[in-house]
Design brief:
Helix content: over 70%
Radius of gyration: 18 Å
CATH architecture: Up-down Bundle
Shape: elongated
Distance between the termini: 19 Å
CATH topology: Bromodomain-like
Strand order of the largest sheet: 1-2
Oligomer: single chain
Largest sheet: 2 strands, antiparallel
Strand content: under 5%
Number of helices: 8
Structural class: mainly alpha
Number of domains: 1
CATH superfamily: DsbB-like
Length: 172
């Protein structure tokens, strides 16, 4: 699969990445607005990572650089956003796997923290997760929503890795 992605143009790779981001955000919004699942702080962090990757992919698709420098830049930034989302999703899955007595207690709401605390403190508390992040709200095919999101970020990461592989293959 990586080799097939390596043969794509920057625009094709970025459009594929953008499509994957749209799919991930679409599912998140359906879960929120159709099924009434309120996103926890880690879910919001994952959404931010998807939006960052989507932004990079959109700019890359519009720019469509011909050289390896542009290809590497967009692929590297998209990979960074994907790894960020992967890390937040992994943290979320880990929190859900904890025994109930080890789950962190619920803290103040995100809106309140944004009003009262400096941004860095809010980010560190959000990424630490809380009790609400450990709740499992159903599953599909035996996997929780954060597990599916983790899988989504892993698939998303393949796209910029394929774009980076294209640089290596072209240099041979």
């Amino acid at each position: 699969m990586i080799i097939r992605l390596a043969g794509m143009s920057v625009r094709q790779g970025c459009l594929l990445g953008l499509l994957m981001c749209a799919l991930m955000m679409g599912v998140a919004l359906v879960l929120q607005y159709v099924y009434g699942l309120t996103p926890c702080p880690l879910c919001i962090g994952q959404r931010i990572a998807v939006l960052l990757a989507a932004f990079v992919f959109a700019i890359g698709a519009l720019h469509n650089p011909a050289g390896n420098l542009g290809r590497g830049l967009y692929a590297g930034l998209a990979a960074l956003a994907s790894v960020l989302g992967l890390a937040v999703a992994a943290r979320h899955v880990w929190l859900q796997s904890l025994p109930p007595e080890n789950v962190p207690s619920c803290g103040p709401g995100l809106d309140y923290m944004m009003e009262v605390l400096p941004l860095w403190d809010v980010l560190s508390r959000v990424l630490a997760g809380s009790g609400e992040c450990a709740e499992i709200h159903g599953s599909l095919l035996g996997m929780s929503i954060p597990q599916w999101t983790l899988l989504g970020f892993a698939v998303l990461l393949l796209i910029p890795l394929g774009m980076l592989a294209g640089i290596v293959i072209r240099r041979r």
